[in-house]
């Protein structure tokens, strides 16, 4: 019943100022709370525990029900027949109440997913790898967090890169400086080692007393509870996203952790697309540079003097279709906006499954778009369709610059 990685409620500290923060989770309704209290009052004498107080939020209540269920199961075999009957009743009620509470989490999960989608919209028009990196912490904060931190894994060390703390930019910059000045190795001495080894998100409570956190960063941030998720890039953990509810004095919940994990997964894919686009642009520039150097070298050898006529070269390479949105030249009118997106992904080497994942559509829809593109461009296969489309784009660019309207003629 308990979600992995979600700690049980911490015991209150001695002083009022040190009491644990309430968890940022949906509250338990009055009726459900009464039923839980009644169950705990029944189970308390049977298990020898205090059963008069139940938590206020759904996640902590479910964790308490699980603990009660396990404690009852542990003493079931040794119990007398009369006591065993009452314990079996407690076990059944634990399961029933947990199922009821699980239903209440459905709306909260839907709202959390909507926040993830809204956060990703901030990355939708990023045109470079630097923009995706810079927007990461701000987008993560849109999940409902007060603060967020983007870090990198550099030579096996945890190294902060950028931080968002709302208007408190000075503390955010100070936190990054402290982390960069005092990098910590991911050798098991930090909670973040789990992010690399297991590639799953975590929740860390009692940050100020936990021996497995970055002590200096914990002191500067004054964090009490945070969630952290790995950012994967090309199959490896390249960094982390951390987030908390410090300003609202709330402990991070399992829902928070899961939302950050979903966002971190999508964020890693956005980084991959931006990185691939950057590499393709660099390759294009390198090939064009080599082309110019080769042409200059041929002319320097005196080829024209040998009677071979003017040195003619192949047409310049067609620009590689970018993987990140940007302003495009006028496109062939016969293709819809979605078909333009699909054909550019074809040019980037994507399969139907890859296109479906990128555009968040079904594989069948992606296949249908490809068929329409082949028909409209009069191509026999995907490679020919890409070649014809790139030629039409070049013609469109020349037309815009005053050249012959070849694209118009080709499109009828």
TrEMBL record:
CDD domains noted in UniProt: LuxR_C_like (cd06170)
Region (Disordered): 1-31
PROSITE patterns (UniProt xref): HTH_LUXR_2
Record keywords, A-Z: DNA-binding, Transcription, Transcription regulation
Composition skew (Pro residues), residue ranges: 1-10
InterPro entries the UniProt entry points to: GAF, GAF-like_dom_sf, Sig_transdc_resp-reg_C-effctor, Tscrpt_reg_LuxR_C, WH-like_DNA-bd_sf
HTH luxR-type domain segment(s): 328-393
Keyword Transcription regulation attached: yes
PANTHER family assigned: DNA-BINDING TRANSCRIPTIONAL ACTIVATOR DEVR_DOSR (PTHR44688:SF16)
UniProt protein name: LuxR C-terminal-related transcriptional regulator
Organism: Patulibacter brassicae
